[in-house]
Structure formats: structure tokens, C-alpha cells
Amino acid sequence: LWLKCLEIIREDVSSQSFSTWFAPIVPLKFQNNTLTIQVPSQFFYEWLEENYVAVLRKAIDHTIGKRGMLEYSIVVDKGDRKNPPITFNLPTLPSSNSNHMQQQTVQQAPARNPFQFKDLDSLELDSYLIPKYTFDKFIEGDCNRLGRAAGMAVANKPGLTSFNPLMIYGGVGLGKTHLIQAIGNQIKEEFPEKFVLYVSTEKFTNQFVNAIRNNSIETFTNFYLQVDVLIIDDVQFLSGKEKTQETFFNIFNHLHQSGKQIILSSDRAPRDLAGMEDRLLSRFKWGLTADLQQPDFETRIAIIQKKLQDDGIQINFDVLEYLAHSIQTNVRELEGVIISLMAQASLTRKEIDLELAKSTLKSIVNDQEKELSVDNILEAVTTHFDVDMLTLKGKCRKKENVFPRQVAMYMLKELTNLPLKSIGYHFGGRDHSTVIHAVQSISEAIESDKSVEKTVKKLFNRFNLALN
Ligand code: ADP
Ligand code: MG
């Protein structure tokens, strides 16, 4: 029965989601129209319920029927320090009172020997965690939701979730290092006795090469085997380094087997990692792989706000929007601009206003200011409102078309030197009184209606211009 469900589910979700969220589920029993499935953790259950209820419902409908019910059994580990209440829930389905619970003991890691490691200078007992990289400072958005949530889950129960290893991948400057460091910092805070180690792949490789040179490979390996939480950044740099990979593979296996948490980052998905041993790649995919994507507009705004707020600086929203519109791909770049903006402001003792933002940005990124042509303006309006050009210029008097049309006229009036008559011309030869009326009603709406003001601001921003 569960296999049938899986077949249906497989069609509805990506293969990545499928292997992450559905493959680990164990069917337990089927009784009274109720299918009981076992999930590895509370987090897992919550994630399923939040994101896949409809998918599950459909699968149940198709296999058991409309009256079918689904019941979760959450694996409870006794090694859990916080002992959360064991909950038992049914998603979206008519409730049932049955209480079936699975207890499972998770093997406790043996106490670690007091750390002794004197003979290799380059290896010290330091976590290499940077305190400023915290979850609190890592702004959540659609771009990073899975990675962030999984990171939190791992931080709360290192080694005890099914996310082992946790593999975070994504392009340059999208927050990989920040996120994996945040996990480390959080673990250090909650479990001070755990030995958390952050190491870049480059450093790991150098240490290994030195160990070969000094005949101290055993010391090197032993050092890593004492780690409770191993965080390795930028594993793509292992590519082509066979010996290092081999040693890393052994360390990985050993740690994984003893229930230690492993966290990895990479600039690309495991399947795109070339020059990597297959067995190592397959290990990378054992746990959870989550990608970080480019932040959307709102997330960029939140990131900038957070950075400024941390430095006690306030700027107007138009500057904020301008920045968020201008730098889209890379959070690091965004930060760079903010930093030089703050430097500029303190040097020149000027306020951070739109003018300063523009001149600073011009000197940093090549400005792709859009030309203020009639076509570009009309196109911006059609894109924003999702209407087509013919409708925008046409005669249809439906409210949802009239408003964009009036906004377009207003923009042309404000942003170009076109006479009213010419503006009318672009809208099927309407006369100038129509244009005046449009301009007036939009001006008034901007004053009286915040959402109209916001809309027009956004449109102006597309041309790196502020309203007023
Ligand atoms: P990567 O390792 O992926 O190249 P980093 O982790 O070094 O990227 O991130 C680059 C900069 O952007 C860092 O200063 C980091 O704090 C910041 N950053 C990235 N993502 C976020 C986010 N979601 N919220 C806040 N800051 C972020
Ligand atoms: Mg990095």
C-alpha cells in the first residue's frame, strides 16, 4: 500500500524532495482505514505537514479512498537532551485518537577522551568559529528556507537527525559559510562540551599535506576523529585530490558511524562535483542536501535593513529599495556596497540619501541604468501589472486595465518631456484631457493611498529614480 502511495507521490514532487522527505518514511501498519507511517523526527513530521499535506492527501485518496487516514509515528530518541513532549498528529485528516508510539533508543556517543594533541602545531583545539555568524543574523527567505531550517534542526540535535551529513550548496556569496558557521556557533552555545570544528577544505588539505611530509598522518587522522561536529567548507576543492579524498573518506565514515555530525558546503550540487570519488559523492548524499539561491527582493531588503540596524544606521526606504533593486545576485556584493556607502557617508559627513547611494553604486558596479524611453516605461508598467501592451494602450474600460493605463500616462508625464498630446498618442490617440485626468487621479491616489504610492515608487525604482 505504501509503495503505491510512493508511486503517486513521486509524480508530484521533485526527485530531490522525494529522496529527502519520502524515502526515509517507514510504513508501520494499516488498520481501520488508517495508514501509520514512521518518520525520523518531529522536525521531519512538521516539515511534511507544512509542505506536503496535499501530496499525501492525494496519495491516500487514490489508494485507500476519501475515508482513508494517515497517522504519524515519530521516532523518539532517548538521547534527546530536551525531551520534548512526544506529540502525535494527523495532518488535515479527520482526527483519530489512537495513540501509537515508537520508542527507539539512539546510541549515546561514548565520552570523549580529554583532548591531547601536542605534536602537531598546526592543529589546535580551536573551533575556528566566527561569532558574528549566527542564525539571528542569517535572514530567512524562500532562497534559503530549507537550508536554514535543516541547519537549525541539526544545531538542536547534532548527529541525531537524519540530516547527516548536511550538505549546503550554492553560488558565491549566498551565505554558505555564514550558515554552516551559524550551525557551529549554535551547537557550541547549546552543547559547550561538544568539540565543534570548522575547517576550510583548503586548510584541511594543507594540514594533510604537512602531515605526509612530517610522517604524522596518524596524528592528523586521530585529531579529526575526536571531533563531535565537523564542518567542512567548500568541499569542491577536494576535487582531483585523491589522497586527501581518501583520508577524508575514512574520517567521514568513522565520524558518521559514531553518530557525529558532519556539515559540508560546496559551490555546486553533489551531482555536478567533478573529480570526486564516487563513494565520497554518494556519502555526501546520505543526509540532506539543501541549496541556497539568490535572495528575492524582499529578502534583500531585510538583509540590508539588518546590516544597517546592527550598525545603528537608518536610511530612507527609497534608498533601501534602490539598493535592493540594484544588486540582485550576491549578498556579499550587497554588503560591500553598504559598507562603502557607510564609509562614504562618514567621510563626507553626509546623510545616506539616494544621491549618495547612486554615486557610490556607480563607482562600484557598472550601472545598468535603464534608458528612460517611452517603450521602456510602458514595458515596465506592463510587466509590473502583468497586462499586455495592446490592452495597456487599448480602449478597455475595466478597472484592472484602466489603472495601469493611468499609471503609465502618469509615468510618461513625470519622466519624459513629452507633451500631453504625444502621450495621448501612445494610447490610441486619446486627447490631452484624458491624459490630464489620468495624471491627476494618479497624483491624488499617491497622496491618499499608500499602496498606489508603493506601486509607483517601485516603478520609478526600475529606472533608478525616486518618486518626488
Ligand atoms: P558563501 O560562503 O556562500 O560564498 P558567505 O557565507 O561568505 O557566502 O556570505 C557572504 C556575505 O553575505 C556574508 O557576510 C554573510 O553574512 C552575508 N549573507 C549571506 N546570506 C545572508 C543572509 N541570508 N542573511 C544575512 N547575511 C547574509
Ligand atoms: Mg564561503
Characterise the protein shown here:
With 468 residues, the chain is an alpha/beta fold. It folds into four domains: 2-104, GMP Synthetase, Chain A, domain 3; 145-292, P-loop containing nucleotide triphosphate hydrolases (Rossmann fold, 3-Layer(aba) Sandwich); 297-364, Orthogonal Bundle (Helicase, Ruva Protein, domain 3), CATH 1.10.8; 374-461, DnaA protein, C-terminal DNA-binding domain (Chromosomal Replication Initiator Protein Dnaa, Chain: A, Orthogonal Bundle), CATH 1.10.1750.10. It has 20 helices and ten strands. The strands form three sheets. The protein has a five-stranded parallel beta sheet, sandwiched between helices. A hairpin with a 2-residue loop joins strand 1 and strand 2. Helix 5 (145-156) runs parallel beside helix 6 (176-190), helix 12 (317-326) runs parallel beside helix 14 (354-364) and helix 17 (399-415) packs across helix 19 (432-448). It is globular and about 85 Å long. The protein binds adenosine-5'-diphosphate (ADP) and magnesium ion (MG). The site of adenosine-5'-diphosphate has 16 residues, from helix 6 and helix 13. Belongs to the DnaA family. Residues 373-442 form the Chromosomal replication initiator DnaA C-terminal domain. Residues 346-468 are annotated as: Domain IV, binds dsDNA. It is found in: Cytoplasm. Keywords: ATP-binding, Cytoplasm, DNA replication, DNA-binding, Lipid-binding, Nucleotide-binding.
